[in-house]
Amino acid sequence: MEELIWFSIPGALLATAIMTVWPETIDTEPKAIVWVILVPAIGFVVHQLYRLIFEASGGYARKSRSVLQHIINLTDHKDIKDNKKAFLVWEIAFYSDKFPVAFRDHDRGAWHYILSFWSISFSAVISCLLCGVGFVLVSSIGVRVLLVAIGELIIAIIFYLKGRSTYKSLIQQEVAILYTNKDLFLSVLGNLREMWCAGTVDEHLC
């Protein structure tokens, strides 16, 4: 049910823009019912599109994720040379039995909210652009579409800032948990280095 709600928000934002630009899409009750049914599906597509962009721009191994640079700094820089390998160390330690379960749940939940906030903001930005196109092409909806566009823009800013605030807080917490469990991460790094040197993972790093 929670996922349905999260998908419905970006879906509702985009559906609102579409219905504002093309009001004939809801001029009958059956059409309105169809839109209500489609809203979660639209939101799901928007969310997945945002996830695709997120992954293409670095994803969970993005450079701004401070904990990965700190993992690199745990070594002499010969074992790990980029964020992707640091992320491998993080993931193995993160899902190990020795990693604090409470923080693992918190971290995963926080990332869920961050990506949800940003996908809502992404949907609102798309909706603003759609309203802009409608304002240019359909003169009869000028005032109405501008009001919707302003509302969507405000929503985009609010949810982006909310996601950004949560993200900045979380990456600081990840660095803290790294150093409070430093031995675990060094152990994982040591095991990975053995595999790298054996040619199992990345032979040229030895």
Largest sheet: none
Please compute the radius of gyration using only Cα atoms.
22 Å
What's the order of the H and E elements? Answer: HHHHHHH
How far the N terminus sits from the C terminus, by CA atoms, comes to: 49 Å
Content-based structural category? mainly alpha
Total number of beta strands: 0
Low-confidence stretches: none
**Helix-residue proportion:** over 70%
Number of helices: 7
Shape: elongated
Strand content: under 5%
**Overall average residue pLDDT:** 86
Structure characterization notes:
- The chain has 206 residues and is an all-alpha fold.
- The protein contains 7 helices and no strands.
- Helices cover 78% and strands 0% of the residues.
- α1 (2-21) crosses α2 and α1 (2-21) packs parallel to α5 (101-137).
Provide tags for this entry:
206 residues; mainly alpha; 7 helices
Helix and strand layout, with pairings?
Layout: H1 2-21, H2 29-56, H3 66-73, H4 83-94, H5 101-137, H6 142-180, H7 182-197
Helix pairs in contact: 1-2, 1-5, 1-6, 2-5, 3-4, 3-6, 4-7, 5-6
Structure summarized in a few sentences:
The chain is mainly α and 206 residues long.
